[in-house]
Design brief:
Distance between the termini: 15 Å
Radius of gyration: 12 Å
Number of helices: 2
Oligomer: single chain
Strand content: 15-25%
Helix content: 25-40%
Length: 80
């Protein structure tokens, strides 16, 4: 998306590696969606208290997974 159409233009981003990524990501979603039906391998969570986006992955994510989650940090929810 062009910068003027993004949800956020300036993002503080952190990355957390967890062994329980699927469970954590399912629990972090505030509404019922596809994640509760699947085993997520990563997710991006907005932390209001610190005004940051936290990318959660397992120990060996590939570049596609990281890029996808970072995109969520800048554009919000873009899935159909």
């Amino acid at each position: 998306m062009p910068p003027d159409a993004r949800v956020m233009n300036h993002v503080k981003l952190t990355w957390e590696v967890r062994q329980d990524v699927s469970e954590y990501c399912r629990k972090s979603q505030s509404k019922v969606n596809r994640l509760q039906l699947m085993q997520p391998i990563a997710c991006a969570v907005w932390i209001k208290a610190t005004n940051e986006c936290k990318v959660i992955t397992g120990p060996n994510p590939n570049h596609l997974v990281l890029g996808h989650e970072v995109r969520h940090c800048f554009e919000g929810h873009f899935h159909p």
